[in-house]
């Protein structure tokens, strides 16, 4: 490859990007001759060299640690499974609800709130994309709809938007009722991201002390098991929609 060992190290640890010529030399070294495999690898290299909108300076300056990485993973995912106990999932938030949530956590920085709200709106575009839309399965604790974030009007609009989004063939929404009592989901929210059939899943856990990416198979399986139990405990999508319509009338 005619390069230093330090560059090899940066490539192996994901801190640097190999050039096309270097990829071609590695394919030759490892005797990858199948044209389909070569085309797939070169396409991955091309996409890796592209700059995502979330990597632009205006967003990187306001993203909390780890959020930029998460947005990049979400952009490449085919399925997102979300469990929330405090807020409506970000991908399903209205503009007003989103600003109310962000304002409460950004301590009076309106410039940051605007940038983060714009980033959230861009992420949501994948749900309605004409080609390969993102699939979303959201399980949300009932307490989320009892907390009037942004006021009564904002919450009523948010619930109506949630019902509209749940009509999409790629979006499922379930509500876990308070009557279920204690369950594993009360330990905190998390998101499972799935990519291709042969690609490993990644779990994203967001918390006040920092964000965590879980990739080890055994740990991921535990989260997957927890999510399955939450789906089983929650109302089905039709029952959930009925509960949400009742909640909107109560506001």
Question: How much of the sequence is in beta strands?
Answer: 5-15%
Overall body shape: elongated
Mean pLDDT: 92
User: Strands across the major sheet, in which order?
Assistant: 3-2-1-4-5-6
- The top-level CATH class of the largest domain is Alpha Beta
Structural class designation: alpha/beta
What is the gyration radius calculated from CA atoms? 21 Å
Number of strands: 6
The H-and-E topology, N to C, reads as: HHHHHEHHEHEEEEHH
The CATH topology of the largest domain is given as: Endonuclease, Chain A
Second rung of CATH, namely the architecture of the largest domain: 2-Layer Sandwich
Q: Helical stretch count?
A: 10
Percent in helix: 40-55%
- What is the count of structural domains? 2
Biggest β-sheet description: 6 strands, mixed
Instruction: Enumerate the spans where pLDDT stays under 50 for 5 or more consecutive residues.
Output: none
Give the distance, in angstroms, between the N- and C-terminal Cα atoms: 65 Å
């Amino acid at each position: 490859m005619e390069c230093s060992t330090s560059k090899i190290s940066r490539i192996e640890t994901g801190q640097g990007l190999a050039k096309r010529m270097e990829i071609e030399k590695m394919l030759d070294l490892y005797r990858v001759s199948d044209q389909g495999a070569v085309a797939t690898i070169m396409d991955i290299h091309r996409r890796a060299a592209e700059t995502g909108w979330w990597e632009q300076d205006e967003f990187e300056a306001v993203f909390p640690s780890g959020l930029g990485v998460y947005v990049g993973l979400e952009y490449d995912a085919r399925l997102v499974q979300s469990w929330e106990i405090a807020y409506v999932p970000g991908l399903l938030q209205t503009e007003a609800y989103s600003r109310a949530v962000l304002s409460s956590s950004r301590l009076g920085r309106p410039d940051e709130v605007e940038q983060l709200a714009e980033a959230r709106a861009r992420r949501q575009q994948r749900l309605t994309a004409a080609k390969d839309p993102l699939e979303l399965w959201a399980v949300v604790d009932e307490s989320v709809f009892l907390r009037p974030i942004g006021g009564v009007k904002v919450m009523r609009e948010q619930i109506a938007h949630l019902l509209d989004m749940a009509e999409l063939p790629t979006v499922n929404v379930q509500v876990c009722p308070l009557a279920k009592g204690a369950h594993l989901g009360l330990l905190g929210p998390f998101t499972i991201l799935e990519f291709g059939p042969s690609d490993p899943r990644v779990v994203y856990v967001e918390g006040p002390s920092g964000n965590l990416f879980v990739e080890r198979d055994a740990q991921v399986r535990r989260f997957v098991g927890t999510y399955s139990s939450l789906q089983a405990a929650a109302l089905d999508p039709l029952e959930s929609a009925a509960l949400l319509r009742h909640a909107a009338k109560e506001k």
